[in-house]
Design a protein that fits this description.
The structure is a single chain. With 246 residues, the protein is of the alpha/beta class. It is 31% helix and 22% strand. It is built from eight helices and twelve strands. Strand 7, helix 5 and strand 8 form a beta-alpha-beta unit. Helix 4 packs across helix 5 and helix 4 packs across helix 8. It binds NADP nicotinamide-adenine-dinucleotide phosphate (NAP). The site of NADP nicotinamide-adenine-dinucleotide phosphate has 24 residues, from helix 4, helix 5 and helix 8.
């Protein structure tokens, strides 16, 4: 690669189905920018600094599963978004120092605004991993109370088996943050009592591939409206682009 060419990239463990490579490389071509976006698969987070040091023209990068939290000790500076939720998905390199941001927050807020006409009082969040951190933060900002459902419940969450009709009467927004149904496991879906979902429910699935998940189909069959995670994906990528200021 030419040394003068600007370099951006994505760090993660398994990146073969990554959206970002195609998205940013297309942007560079259409906007006539001499830059490249590369995928860096690393088997542990400790490999990140030697890799960054090898590519002197690296100006910024994204981080994905499973390193969004593990990256934090390696950063020189973090902004409010990373401080608030304890996860980082975007880094800008300035004078060899790493500045961390979380643009999933911006992405999810865009998706939430697109899917809602009225703000519900309460939501059900399925799953409680990395992406759920951004979801919880944005719901709090929007004063939407939430119930977390996970397979190993903690003090403030419940098990999938404990979901009952009352929960669906109280919560008109249901957000899937589990990877159930994501390509290539498209036949999977969260096990919840779908019979309690009706036309009053708005459903958000953070999954964007396939465009309609089994979870979305099941909710739509009950009369709910459902949206996938594509707007969040594009929203977080566009926010990273602004931060890098290419
Ligand atoms: P993660 O940190 O691994 O968290 C996944 C969550 O799902 C955990 O709570 C996990 O529970 C739960 N889960 C996994 N398998 C399950 C199962 N069989 N039954 C019940 N719960 C299960 O992953 P993540 O980063 O949050 O990503 C989750 C999904 O969101 C992925 O599909 C990802 O593509 C999508 N996502 C989309 C966007 C976007 O821009 N649209 C952004 C971020 C993420 P345990 O803790 O018990 O394993």
């Amino acid at each position: 690669m030419e040394v003068n060419k600007l370099l951006f990239g994505l760090f993660g463990k398994h990146l073969s189905h990554s959206f970002s490579g195609t998205y940013f490389n297309n942007k560079f071509i259409t906007q006539n920018i001499d830059a490249e976006y590369k995928l860096f698969e690393i088997e542990k987070i400790e490999k990140i600094i030697p890799t960054i040091n090898k590519f002197k023209n690296l100006k910024g990068f994204n981080i994905t599963i499973p390193y969004k939290t593990e990256i934090i000790p390696f950063l020189h500076n973090i902004d409010e978004s990373v401080k608030n939720i304890g996860a980082c998905n975007t880094v800008k390199i300035i004078d060899n120092e790493l500045f961390g941001f979380n643009t999933d927050l911006i992405g999810f807020e865009i998706l939430l605004n697109k899917s809602l006409i009225d703000t519900p009082e309460k939501a059900i969040i399925l799953g409680n991993g990395g992406a759920a951190k951004a979801v919880k933060w944005i719901l709090k900002q929007n004063k939407i109370d939430f119930l977390i459902v996970e397979r190993t419940p903690k003090e403030n969450s419940i098990n999938f088996d404990d979901l009952n009709e009352e929960h669906f009467i109280q919560s008109k927004l249901i957000i899937n943050t589990t990877p159930l149904g994501m390509f290539p496991f498209v036949n999977q879906f969260p096990i919840i009592p779908y019979q309690f979902i009706n036309q009053q429910h708005k459903v958000i699935d953070l999954i964007y591939n396939p465009t309609e998940t089994e979870f979305m189909k099941k909710c739509k069959n009950q009369g709910a409206t459902a949206i996938n995670g594509l707007d969040m994906l594009i929203g977080q990528a566009e926010a990273a682009w602004k931060i890098w200021d290419v």
